[in-house]
Write a structure and sequence with these properties.
β1 and β2 form a beta hairpin. The chain starts with a strand and ends in a 12-residue tail after the last helix. It is mainly alpha-helical and about 500 residues long. The protein has a 3-stranded mixed sheet with strand order 1-2-3, with no helix packed on it. The protein has 17 helices and 3 strands. It has a single domain (about 5-445, about 455-505), classed as Amino acid/polyamine transporter I (Up-down Bundle). The protein is globular and about 70 Å long.
Length: about 500
Amino acid sequence: MADETKKVGSVVYREAGSEYFEKRGLRRHAGVWSLWALGVAAVISGDFSGWNLGIPAGGWGGLVVATVVITIMYIGLCYSIAEMSPAMPHTGGAYSFGRSAMGPWGGFITGLAENMEYVVTPAVVVFFAGSYAQPVFDELIGVNIPQPWWWLIFYMIFVGLNIIGIEATMRFSVVICLMSLAVLAIFFIGAIPKFDSKLLSDVGDGSFLPFGIEGVFKNLPYAIWFYLAIEELPLAAEESMDPKRDVPRGTLLGLLTLVIAAVGVLFLNPGIAPGAAEIGGGDASGAPLLAGFETIFGTGAKLAALFGLFALAGLVASFHTIIFAYGRNIFSLSRAGYFPHWMSVTHGERKTPYVALVLGGVVGWVLAFVMYQASKEGGSTVGAALLNMAVFGAVISYFMQCLSFVMLRRKMPNIARPYRSPIGEWGAVIAGIIALGALISLYLDEAYRPGVYGVAIWFVLGIVYFAIIGRNRLVLSPEEEFALTQGERGHPEDEGYGKTHVADVQT
């Protein structure tokens, strides 16, 4: 990197040069259906595990009400993202929105929150994947592997698949997404004849809201699991063939798909034996859909185990696609200098951010292992604790993105907006308020507070790093170009990279 620097406010920009961006190149491939599959696949594991862990705290009714509230939040969020992303088609996604709306500090805080969400979420998913894989493989071929080894196997396979290239990533996402939806459709068809509404209310005193409004608030983080990560699509903007058209369409079609899936799972999975109480807090809580298949096809039957293997596809889908997300998040923050620059180097031929992909995988596995060991010593349930940690980063990111939407409407009213949200600023405001409510709800369950405190410390340490080091090493990446020139430059789909130089920056 060149030595020329310029201070702009509280941050310092360094001249990068063409060689810097050549080592950080991406390749365009994704179309609208690839993006739809990427978004749906990222979330679909939430229909297979995780959502059910809120039932003991609020009952089935509390989870239903919480899901309605959270669905409203995601509608507001996704419409906001659908407007911002084509206007700022950068890999930075949430960080890009925050940077243009609130400056470097706002951009970094938004990006850091999203970073925590996407690094922790695969750790949640891989924990549940191990819960599905062990009984299935034990039943089918008699293989018994300790959970941490299952996690390592999954990480090695799917980090490797993401490194191979964007073409392989997107093709696998489409296949695994369709397979996961087919598994859910088979489950819905098989569950309908066995549905018993009495099983929905077998928690607490048997009423719709056995734990009152408090139970609804405690269920907000678990309801988020039906949708968490649909907002990752803007991270694929620089690998999309037509980001200004396809990212909004993929996002909104994906959200519609997930709403339909969530309704089916929320009613049918706890509405058949073993019932809401058992899949919420009993032995079936780690693999609720597998318990449902056993009810439909017979306990311990080879066919049920086979469907459990198919159900594992839903967890693999999210695991694979959220690895993509954390890789691009780390890549974009590093390329701009907020994280150390070496994290954003891409593979010379494959053009994938292999350093970021491996780094995020190591952190995720270690985090899951630490929580697993803590649970053996009397700690909280691993999956639920990790889920709350992921939601902590997510809801902060959601609030910041909704705030960015409102500020950009007022700060940059004249930038090109190929898509405009039909619910406008009010949709973003409502979504932002709900996100803050969900953040508060994370502290209501005492058992999971240590994990939430842990990611809060991670958040604070990240801000300290930026204050001392990161803010003095920024580079004019597309996100920074766009923000500093009020949208006149920083359009990689048209201009390429590195067209604005430090000497051109107005202070």
